[in-house]
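Feature request, filed as a ticket because there's no other form

It would be nice if the structure record came with a short human-readable summary line next to the tokens. Right now we just get the raw output. Example of a typical job, pasted below so the devs can see what we mean:
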Amino acid sequence: MELPVNKFKHALKAGKPQIGIWSSLSSHIVAEILSNSGFDWVLLDTEHSPNELPMVQQQLHAMQGGSANPIVRVPWNDMVMVKRFLDIGAQSLLLPYVQSVEEARNAVAYTRYPQDGVRGVAGATRAAGYGRIKDYLKNAHQELCVLVQVETRKAMASIEAIAAVDGVDGVFIGPIDLSADMGYLGNWQHPEVWKVMEDAAKKIRKAGKAPGILVGEAHGQRGLDLGYLFVAVGADAGMLVRGADALAAKFKR
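Raw output as currently delivered:
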């Protein structure tokens, strides 16, 4: 049994734009549907949705064979949480609220086995093919993608140094939290916020890493034009709400 290749990680390294969608409905059925929709990646969110470890494992199962790579946003940049999601087979992780170089280094260390990190060692996990993947412990890091989320003015002040941390593959900008921290709560589309996000993309690329962002369908192309490499252009919950509201309204007039 071979170590699965992380197509998303290698695409970012090659500079190929990756179009994704956010999934917070916490459903393996939704994950399966989205994984075969033509997206490059699907973000399985556990920070802002009632999505727990066994549920995420079901979603990873459901996405096998789909065209989209799963990314799991863990609830916190925490050693135990990272270890558990890696053990069930997540290869790409988004770690929220990274504020400093130290926190970015910690994020990487949580994904690496000793002596390069502090990930707890277990041999018969799903990630290791239940022990069938030869030399998993030695080679796992080669296919792991570490994405850190930057979403405050404090983090933005150190964004170049955060991006430069060895082992960080990409830096994701959280527009809603960033705009709130900048004093524009509920208005992430404010010109001043876009200005900061444009500058961030340049700095991340200058550090040789991939910038990412969630901007939705209306602003997806703008995100790509600014140089963002992995861009989420929609979210399952929002699509369901809009579609359901429009259908009901059509017949309720």
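Something like this underneath would help us a lot:
The chain is about 40% helix and 15% strand.
The chain has a mean pLDDT of 98.
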